[in-house]
Amino acid sequence: MSTLRALARAQAVAAGVAQPVATVRHLHLATRPLVLVPLAMAGEAHAPLAALVGTAPDDARLLIVPQPRNRDQRFRFVTELAGIVLPWLDGFRGVSEAVAVDRGRDVRYRYVDAPQLWVPNPAGITFLRLLGRSTRFRRPDGDYPVHPAVPLLGRWLTFFAERAEQPGSSALLAMTDALTLHWATGQSAVEDLHLPALLGWIDPPAGWTGVAAAARAEDPGVCPPAGPATDPEFDNAALAPAMAAWAAADDDPAARDEAYAELVRLLRGQLAPTWELMWRGLGLLGALPPGARVAGRWAGDRDAFTGYAEHLDADGGPQPRRDGAVAAAVRLHRLERAATTYAVQRAYDDPLVMAEHRLTGEAFVGDVTLADPARVDDSGKRPVLRPRIQVVTTEPVRVPVGATLWSTARPGQKAKVVFVTPAADGRTEVVLELSGGMGRGLTAPPGSVPQVGERLCLTTLSEAFLPAGTFPTAEETPWTHGGPPVADVSTRSSAGLSSVVG
Amino acid sequence: MTSTAQRLAAIRGDAPPKRHNARTIAALTGNPGCSRRAVLDGAGVDKSALAERVGFPARFGQSRFAITRGNAFEAQVKADGGAELLRLVAQRLGVPVPERASWTDLGGADDLPDRRERSRAALTASGSEAALFDHPLLGLQVAGQRVHLEPDLVAARLGGRFHVVEIKSFPVIDGQADPAKVAAAAVQSAVYVLALRDLFAAEGRDPESVSHDVVLVCPRDFANQPVASLIDVRKQLLVLRRQLDRMARLDDLLTVVPTGFTADPAAEPATLAAALRTVPARYAPDCLAGCELAYFCRNEARGQTGALGRPVREALGGIAEVTEVLALATGERAADPEREEAAALLRAAARLRADALAGHPA
Ligand code: SF4
């Protein structure tokens, strides 16, 4: 927790309403997102109980499972869900654009838009991941055949769940994560996981303080939990008798219809309030202007969608249960790179995020007081353009001489620290030598070198491309690290559980 | 009755001390630094009733679906005299699966002393052939009281060593389970390991013959087929031991309790609330998942940075009150020397936040 964000929480307590921690929106908002609010049956291994799903506030489809312990009914639910999700996914496979690759020597294609899926909270993402896990290996033939749409949906849900692990991806988002990325409440992070309470702080009803709205939202009788876990009171007092009535009406069609209607009424009653909150949350996010680098990250999501759609077109198999050693290392490396890039991009896009880095000394803002844009360094084999500028700042400068800085205004230009000199009234003078971003000649084009009077934000955070790691191919992996691979994707490690025990 | 016991009885009111079980004992490790909790738990106060009475009822409901499912899975695993269970446990421990093992159900409707004696005799009897003991009655000393534990537990004796076997109905999927549930199961199992070790020690037997590796049996993937995993509970044992030792020194604890303090749920709510406030608490957001008084204490802790979570409090330089944080941040209040560093950071943070929100260039 940065001090800046912690301070925002303290300010929220005093103000009685959540405080912004971002000035721009750091995620992509789709024009046609699919909102999915799932409920799971308590005690079962991720058995779906019900879901509200749809792409517009007034277009909620309710799916229910009258008896989640019944396998056929569970798969009927998944088939129905696939009947909604798969056509929606296909809707994004119309128009492609060409993207130059390999320095323009080649092109590849990607869809101009991609699907975006929203669930209420991180537990909702886990639910989809496990729903994907429990369906992607099913087969339309063999002993327990399922509808062919079931394994296909399972693969897509797994795709989304894997994207959701990638920092900065907007393919599958949890509303609580999205909101806390932009607002700080006057409650703790655990309490922020409860969507009704979180929205109570961010957008309390007129005349209410955030704390009062959040307290009210904690009463499951007033605000049902946002799932996938149900309210135990609801299970015991309402759902269990209704399920029993449905089961008891086995051979009486009229009674069964009535019992089914009651289940529908009850489950809709639990889901509808969260459905409303989801669209309210989307509205709040939509009111923020997007950050400049959001579209670039969304292009990555579009690439991933295109790639996975092509994989499935080519009869690609389901994702393995577990990564092999090389795949796991590659994935970890990719996620770390994405996390770094995402953090840097958010800081470049948003002065309020950059302020967190200024507070820790990774960035400072100052005014250009001297500039020598024509300076040429001819000490080497051939002369090079190396302008120098002096920046004066009131902020603490914690970077050593020789360090390389970047300016948010000119991300392609390096600024090497040459001198750091303390000056009067706590100011610091920093002399920087610039390279890059000025063309190839010995004269800098206008605007490429900061001018006297310009205010700059200089930072150690770099947007420069991070090189991809190199990993051995699977065949080259020693057996101690899981290779050469066994073809059976179901190979399990026995060490897994202990690794989650602290 | 000793004077300590008398004081505890007075705190509790008329009611007999609340019975502990492994879950409540495990919960004692939740916020070990909190005196309020240690005193109430030590006195055996019914904290649920207390919380309800002061207007902040706890929300620890359990769905009956979950209970039904838990019972069904347990019955399934224990079926056939534990043959399947024996195989699972032996394989997980890496020992040959014994041809046969005795199955002793120590549960029953008879009197506690009889059951306790039966459990003691059966568990500590010499013998090294494979044996499974279901529903043993165990005991622990909690805050000077003898607490009986009646776990749905199997103690497995294999190769002369005992292992606690916990059967839980949450799934292990591709070798991974919900970390929070595994952690809770680990602490509960540690309670049983401790109780078993105490029993052995009392009989002059080697307590170390009870392993610190417990066997967790859960359904595997999305089916009902059980899978066994090993959990090392040494860390949990240490924490439990420390907290039980602390509660054993109740006299020390009672020094922070004013005379006349009552937590008798029959008393007037206003009296109770006022009395509770006289015993120092240490509210943290984790309390919401672990202590019946959480909503009361949270309400009391409003305006404190600790109520926002420990990372928030630390990031604010450890300053306890939100009002003080804000006064230091705006410079309204000058900091005393040892807070100067924290105050400077807060002032800088406040200035940077204000600047960025006002849209000043950065
Ligand atoms: S809820 Fe209150 S009494 Fe319970 S542990 Fe937390 S601070 Fe202590």
Give the SSE order of chain B as H and E letters.
HHHHHHEHEEEEEHEEHHHHHHHH
Q: Which consecutive residue ranges of chain A, at least 5 long each, have pLDDT under 50?
A: 482-502
Poorly predicted runs of 5 or more residues of chain B = none
- The total count of strands of chain B amounts to 8
Structural class assignment of chain B: alpha/beta
CATH class of the domain at 64-243 in chain B: Alpha Beta
How are the strands of the biggest sheet of chain A laid out side by side? 10-13-16-15-14-17
Secondary-structure-based class of chain A equals alpha+beta
What kind of assembly state do the chains in view correspond to?
Answer: heterodimer
Helix content of chain A: 25-40%
Ligands bound to this protein structure: iron/sulfur cluster
User: How many helices of chain B does DSSP assign?
Assistant: 16
> Hey, roughly how much beta strand do the residues of chain B contain?
5-15%
Number of domains of chain A: 3
Q: Which two chains form the greatest contact, residue counts included?
A: A-B, 62 and 70 residues
Distance between the termini of chain A: 22 Å
Supply the CATH architecture of the domain at 64-243 in chain B. Answer: Alpha-Beta Complex
Quick take:
Chain A is α+β, with helices and mostly antiparallel strands and 502 residues long. Chain A contains 14 helices and 17 strands.
Walk me through this protein's architecture.
- Chain A: Residues 471-502 are annotated as: Disordered.
- Chain A: Residues 490-502 have a biased composition (Polar residues).
- Chain B: It comes from Micromonospora matsumotoense.
- The complex is a heterodimer of chains A (502) and B (362).
- Chain A has helices at residues 3-15, 71-90, 122-135, 149-164, 175-180, 189-192, 195-202, 210-217, 232-248, 253-286, 294-313, 325-349, 351-359, 496-499, and strands at 19-20, 34-40, 48-54, 61-64, 96-101, 106-111, 117-119, 172-174, 183-184, 363-372, 376-377, 384-385, 388-393, 404-407, 410-422, 428-435, 455-459.
- Chain A is an alpha+beta fold.
- A six-stranded antiparallel barrel of chain A has the order 10-13-16-15-14-17.
- In chain A, strand 11 (376-377) and strand 12 form a beta hairpin.
- Chain A starts with a helix and ends with a helix.
- In chain B, strand 3 (138-142) and strand 4 form a beta hairpin.
- Among the domains of chain B are: 64-243, Lambda Exonuclease, Chain A (Alpha-Beta Complex); 308-359, no CATH class.
- By secondary structure, chain B is of the alpha/beta class.
- In chain B, the strands form two sheets. Chain B has a six-stranded mixed sheet with strand order 1-2-5-6-7-8, with helices on both faces. Chain B has a two-stranded antiparallel ribbon with strand order 3-4.
- The chains are: A alpha+beta (502), B alpha/beta (362).
- At the A-B interface, helix 1, helix 3, helix 6, helix 9 and helix 13 of A face helix 5, helix 8, strand 8, helix 14 and helix 15 of B.
- The complex binds iron/sulfur cluster.
